[in-house]
Amino acid sequence: MLKNLPSPEIHCHQEHVAPPSSGSRRRRLWDLDHHCHCPLVGVSLPIDTLRRLVNKALGGSAVANDYEVHAGAVSECARRCKLSELMQDELDARYVREIQTFKAAKSALAVAELWIKYLKAGDVAGAFWAALSHPRCDMPLQEAMCKDLHMFQHQAGAGVRLEIARFNALAEENAVLGRELGKVQERITRVMAQKTADIERLNAELLQVRAEAIAKDSRIVFMAQDLEALQASIPQLEDKQRLQKRVDQMAQRQQELEAQNGDLRRRLAVAERVAAERAGLERVAMGAEAGALQDVQAMVVQLHQKMVLCVGGRSGNIANYRDVVERVGGRFAHHDGGVEDNASVLDANLAAADLVICQTGCISHNAYWRVKDFCKRTGKRCVFVENPSASSLERGLAQIAIAKPAVDVLVPELPR
Fold first, then answer.
1. How far apart are CA 357 and CA 381, in angstroms?
2. Using 50, 70 and 90 to split pLDDT, how confident is the model at 10?
3. Which of 387, 393, 394 lies closest to 295 in space, CA to CA?
């Protein structure tokens, strides 16, 4: 209990002391009219702070309730004592910013305007103390401020009740949301547990796959080392491999040549039967070499802009070959039959040619069979001649104009 603290009811009937209207010194707490002490202590000093100041003034702990502490503090504000001085210092320290703001007011009207500004903003605790203690605060302003604060407390109480109702509604809604959140968290926990199990399973599978990959890489490295050691142990391995590859190619080529030889034998039998029939024609052609040009000129219509490919022949006669072909309106192309030109180019020349003259006397075996096989497959007109002279080429052109089969053989001998 607070001791020697007069009851607040005793001072409520005391005469009001008019505040000073002049001077620059701020009024002290005990200088204020007593009916200002109750709202000032209740609004401007929180109960916890007020209890601390009372305990400090009494030198112990007050066992009174909050109302008794408030009432005793209000009674002590009427006189200057240890408790009132402590409250004075606490109010000055707590609301130093508001005191500095009100210090700029030089009249009661200016103080009233600042007070209304703070009242509308709802910040009345510091402004009430700064205005009451201001040297220009007169009795009418003091009473008006007390009335304003009284109504403000009523409105604040109504607002508190409204806020309490809202708080209760929000608390109920929060409880519902909390239960829903608990259910959601429970579901999330189950899902997370499932996902964690899946992740652990996938990690285990990943580790197994990585282990298998490492094992395979290790086996590949060991096999590569064994292969290098084996290759190092076999002398001249690359030469042997190259020779083996060459042997395989030769074996395949031998099979192709055997098949071509069988076909050639059949064609040779046919050629022998035809040879007798063409012997007269050959003699006429051999005896009438001078008139071959006229026979070739008769082919201008047939050879106009046609590509004539001459395979083989002597290099010195190439100009004569070209002159013979171009005189009858054809276009000349030549391939040496594999002696100098690349044999791989022969297929491209054969594909581009319209007529083929094969000089069997100056051609390689490979080129001979390549020309023969290509013309057989494609049905392209081809004449094989043995003599590499220009007159033989002229007879070959004349023979193409006369002959009907796709491949004509004037000399059935194999190239040498």
1. 9
2. very low
3. 394
